[in-house]
Amino acid sequence: MKKTSIERGIYFLPNLMTTAALFAGFYAVIAGMNGHYEAGAVAIFIAMIFDGLDGRIARMTNSTSAFGAEYDSLADMVSFGLAPALLLYSWGVHEFGKLGWLAAFVYTAGAALRLARFNVQASSLSKKYFQGLPSPAAAVLVAGWVWVIEHHALPWNVAAHLIGAGLLVAAGVLMVSNVRYFSGKEFNLKRKVPFVALLVVVLVLVVISLEPPLTLWGFFAVYAFSGPVITLRQLQLRRRLRAQARERIRKKRAQAAQETTAAESPNRTTRENRT
């Protein structure tokens, strides 16, 4: 009897990264329950880092597996589906009562549907774009808002909690939408880059270190907004190309009609002269 891949063993390093991401997501839930909201938000950012590492390590070391893909998806559901929703609900969205937990549920359901759709379509999707907002980006978008408020000790007012609830709903809808986002998977870490690229990385790290919560949250807010912009521009381009194609076809038909008319004119003149 042929042994399954589980019986033969699993790849340690990429699954270790996935476990670290799962641990960070679980810690974010515990931190939120205990009122440590800033720590919980930071833990979700850390989970995003480990989640990005596991896939890249698996591809670079040629250690991808079906088990790793399924484990990663389940860990993502905890770290980026449940943890952000529970964190924001404990932080202040619960003040809206039923509407508060419904907003949290919309986000969680959106993350589950996003992950399920990605698993089904993974082999057929373009590597350049994601279909819908990626769940890690959605998670840090909503958790980053809590981090900004907590880090700067801003007052917990209705407006801040309302924005948090709005981010939950917006992120949940964007995850299941057909809006396209740059994936960054085409970036090859093995190829050579200009020396100035290293200087750019240093400058980015300096900017982030000056104000980590606001800088990181602002980056992912811009990323979330970039999807609709990219999609609208692509739709406009497609409409323009279709209009140009229809115009070319119309011109070709008009030209063919003129040529047919020109070819028939001498024959008509000859018949009229004979008559």
Structural category is: mainly alpha
Radius of gyration (CA) equals 27 Å
Biggest beta-sheet profile? 2 strands, antiparallel
Segments where pLDDT lies below 50 for 5+ residues? Answer: none
The H-and-E topology, N to C, reads as HHHHHEHHEHH
The CATH topology name reads Four Helix Bundle (Hemerythrin (Met), subunit A)
Identify the CATH architecture: Up-down Bundle
Topology:
Blueprint: H1 5-8, H2 12-33, H3 37-60, H4 66-91, H5 98-121, E1 129-131, H6 135-151, H7 158-176, E2 180-182, H8 195-210, H9 212-274
Antiparallel strand pairs: 1-2
Transmembrane segments: 12-30, 99-117, 129-148, 160-181, 193-210, 216-232
Biased composition (Low complexity): 255-264
GO molecular function, one term: CDP-diacylglycerol-serine O-phosphatidyltransferase activity
